[in-house]
Amino acid sequence: MQSVHSKRILRLGKTKILYFTTHMNQHILTRQQARKIILHAAGLDRPAPFGTGREAVYQVIDHLGYVQIDTNYVVERAHHHAIATRVPDYEIEWLNELQEEGLIYEYLTSDSGYMPMHEVRFSLPTKESFRVKNESLTRAEINLMKSILDRIGREGPLMVTDFENDRMKASSGWWDWRPAKVALERLYRDGRLMTTRAKDFKKRYDLPGNLIPADVDLTMPTPEEFARHVIKRNLKALGIAYAKELNWRARFVKNNLIKQELPKLVEEGEICAVAVEGLKSAILYMLPVYKDKNIELSGDAFILSPFDTLNVFRHRLRDFFDFDYQIECFVPEAKRKYGYFSLPILIGEAFVARMDAKADRKTRILIVHNLHFESLELNEHDLLKLTEAIKRLVLFNQCRDIKISKSNNEQYLEAIKQGLE
Q: Are 375 and 413 in contact (CB under 8 A)?
């Protein structure tokens, strides 16, 4: 362990005044140790770390605390993809079954995701924040929300399509929701409604009392309790994290106490302050269980969703894996380098490639527009593992065949094509 000084700065207008320092013991890690901890926490150190079957799906969500939902359907949706990466026999129906049984629920942390129902009380501060925002709405908006609540109370769960088109003018774009949709989402965010998903992925809005089991604790956590939960819960999934990442996971709760609670938890031994050799950065944090944990990676290949827990913070991939990754579906076409929906490929502790793929559901062919390899040397074993991962991705997307259009490494591509025959 190494003792370092943490500087605190008082801001007076544009003037900065250094006014005190504190001692904080930091656990020093090599970059390789840090990578192993992050991959173990993410459930990507070996195949099937949570087992198989429907119970393993729940274990994934309970461990990660949050599996991000995304609507993009170029390949199978992100939440299904992330789970299938960790549960090899995953069936997409299992997710809806777990929600119908009251074991998981959908809500927001930094984004929308599936979370374990037994922790639903920790969503209450976020809902309270949205409820405060709704106090400034117009009388017409409040009346619409009330009428929607009354109708769902009478009729049961409804979709936005169950409400007549109340748009006053033509839609102007993607997020130009009509008033009923806006009202439903406001009620969902402030906690007066919850959602499940139909088979076509459309939301069904329902009253919380119909979805939350009676024995689930709904006590509002104190600000300190909420902050500590967010810190420890997300360190369990991230392995090692900066304060800004932990704070992002609670970004809808204004004036949360995460930054204030971090040094307290370090002092109490509940978490550790961490520094990584060769990485000049802000203080990092991890759970004490990793201080002396021996982690061995299997060396298997994982083709990841862009919205996988491992990938959502771009700076982490640069800092720990020397991998500069961006989801280029958000980049203008002329500026894309690798493709619209490029999937990161991990082998062992290294990101070795990215695959721009699309599932053609009519022909049942997985089309790979671009398989771009990083500047790393892969051996025969690596290419075999990658080929096996590609086969799994084809089957997971309910395709029968694969077509790879181009690659920047013809030697690797030829070896993969031979393995796919």
A: no
Q: 376 is in which domain, residue-wise?
A: 301-420
pTM (2 d.p.):
0.91
Alpha-carbon span 159 to 152, nearest angstrom:
10
**Residue 144 φ/ψ, nearest 5 degrees:** -65, -45
- Name which of 118, 323, 312, 142 is nearest 233 in CA terms: 118
Q: Which residue has the tokens 């949570």?
A: 50
172 confidence band (pLDDT: 50, 70, 90): very low
Let me know whether 213 and 228 are in one domain. no
Instruction: Tell me, yes or no, whether 266 and 200 share the same domain.
Output: no
215, 226: one domain: no
CATH number at residue 19: 1.10.10
Q: Is 109 exposed, middle or buried (0-12, 13-18, 19+ CB in 10 A)?
A: buried
The gap between the terminal CA atoms of the chain, to the nearest Å, is 53
Same-domain pairing of 276 and 311? no
Q: pLDDT digits over 95-111, tens only?
A: 999 999 999 999 999 99
pLDDT at 11 over 60: no
